[in-house]
Amino acid sequence: MPVMGYVLRGVDFSNMFIMLGGGSYASLADAQKAGAATINYGVFINSIITFLVVGLAMFFVVKSLNAMKRKQAEAPAAPPAPTKEEQLLAEIRDLLKERK
Fold first, then answer.
1. CA pair distance 46, 13, nearest whole angstrom
2. What is the CA 94 to chain-centroid distance, rounded?
3. In the predicted model, is pLDDT for residue 29 greater than 60?
4. Considering the chain, what is the average pLDDT of its residues?
5. Which of 59, 50, 51 is nearest to 4 (CA)?
6. Is 6 helix (H, G, I), strand (E, B) or coil?
7. DSSP string, 30-48
8. Distance between CA 66 and CA 11 in Å, rounded?
9. Residues 38-81: tens digit of each pLDDT
10. Per-residue H/E/C for 50-98
11. H/E run at residue 4
12. 38 φ, ψ (degrees, to nearest 5)
């Protein structure tokens, strides 16, 4: 997420953790390699931010699709073809006009 990295000035949440018990490690990878018990709250924060960004993007996609469908539904439909009765009545009208 380059945009989030720019906004947060390069903060890397994935390397944030709390040690359970004694010991001190420079990174989460070092602590996991040593088998130390950790609470990886940085990974959770990254997951939340990713979820929000993807959710926001999906919201705008669905919103734009619904707007396009609404515009298509508002387009006027072609007028219905005249029924057989209307066609017969029009023929009778035309014949009566020719008699006069």
1. 6
2. 58
3. yes
4. 86
5. 50
6. helix
7. HHHHHT--EE-HHHHHHHH
8. 37
9. 898 988 988 898 899 899 999 999 999 999 998 887 777 788 88
10. HHHHHHHHHHHHHHHHHHHHHHHHHCCCCCCCCCHHHHHHHHHHHHHHH
11. helix 2-7
12. -135, 155
Residue 97 exposed, middle or buried by CB count within 10 Å (0-12, 13-18, 19+): exposed
Residue type, 55: G
Question: Strand 38-39 to strand 18-19: parallel, antiparallel, or no bridges (unpaired)?
Answer: antiparallel
Q: Which residue has the tokens 């390699």?
A: 33
The helix/strand/coil state of 19 is: strand
pLDDT at residue 66, rounded to an integer = 94
As given in the structure block, the two tokens for residue 48 are 């939340």
CA distances, 79 to each of 3, 25, 88, 90 (Å): 51, 76, 19, 17
